[in-house]
Predict the 3D structure of the following.
Amino acid sequence: MDDLRWTIARQMPHLRRYAIALTRNRDEADDLVQDCLERALRKRHLWRRRGNIRSWLFRILYRTHIDHKRRRRPTTVPASSEVIDHVDAQAPDQEPRLECRNIAEALDRLPHDQRAVILLVALEGMSYDEVADVMGIPIGTVRSRLSRGRESLRQLRASETARPRLRSVK
């Protein structure tokens, strides 16, 4: 039993990174990982010690994320003037940070299924077989979503670089 808990604990940083990429919010990601780990420990008898425990945990995380997304209703909370006054309104001027932000925005524009596949392959380095297992879809669907997602990202990035940029005054 302790060996299984230790094995699960080793996957926590990977689960958290993927949860942050899915939710784009650290607090929601932490809640998602916690719910995932609770389910995994509660249903540990279902893991048959065949295959990869990482895939099993990511499948639980992904399914939990889908469940949360279905249950959640969009809410807007009016911001008080104190909150608005404390927001840093200056945009970063560092090229790598801007590039990361642009890529994150482009990923946000993708359909959820394509984004989830791209994040598992590119961010987590999973094989197509593992992604298919995590998402519960055929490997051909993984390849299709990955191909369409990559092409959409290329088009989004191309349209962004085609936009005229402001020149800086020296």
User: Anything to note?
Assistant: The chain has a mean pLDDT of 82.
